[in-house]
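Subgroup meeting minutes
Present: P.N., E.W., G.H.
Scribe: E.W.

1. P.N. recapped why we're keeping a running log of single-chain structure predictions: easier to compare across weeks, and new members can see raw inputs and outputs side by side.
2. G.H. added today's entry (254 aa).
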Amino acid sequence: MMAYMDSEILDIAKMPRGGFDASCLDRRLQTDRLEYLDRSDVDDRTNRQIVDALDRIGTLFNGHDKNARLVLAEVADVADPKILELGSGHGGLSRKLLEHHPTAQVTVTDVDPGSVTDIAASDLGSHPQASVREMDATAIDAPDGYFDLAVFAMSFHHLPPPLASRVFAEGTRVADKLVIIDMPRPPSLLHVLRLSAMLPFAGLVPLLHDGAISSLRSYSPSALRALAAHADSAIELDLRGGLLSAQMVVAFRR
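Output recorded in log:
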């Protein structure tokens, strides 16, 4: 059994999004196609429309607020927590973190220079408790243990397995806790139903195009465990939510 697991970990690049134990159908419900947000050949206007739409949806359905409360619950015992947001995109989560915890120190980051420029030009750029930086979640520019918590919300699925595993390694290196919040990967038949509702309009609506691809690229709990194990056997996971709510992972080192 151990030899089998070692072989799986070494082959992390080949791991299905549903994990090594994914069913045949689940293995077909994935894609290497990139979202518009991840493509260099897509114009900035389209990407901005998608980012703005995601921000509006997060505000309309209280997604930013719910995620901020989940994050702050993990540092409830820290008076003035240092929080790192990875892959911020529009800054909606960081904005809510500071609204609910005015003395928190929040470092708002994204790998995309355009997003960083937009965030820096917003209210977050002048907030006394916030700093805005360009940063790669797979190679975090910070000392070991510098943050109380790092959070990567609704973007983890963008990364292929080798890079996703690096997020576990880097996030738990620079912070006491790494919180990943992302869309859940439903059981295969439900997944088919979800995709059937999105795909007919994916060619017309950029947000639905990216939503369908996000669904196909989402990770299962089994896959998340394998990614963390590949990063470091000392990393432990607490998996929460899923199916009818966002999937949440709290990772920390023993």
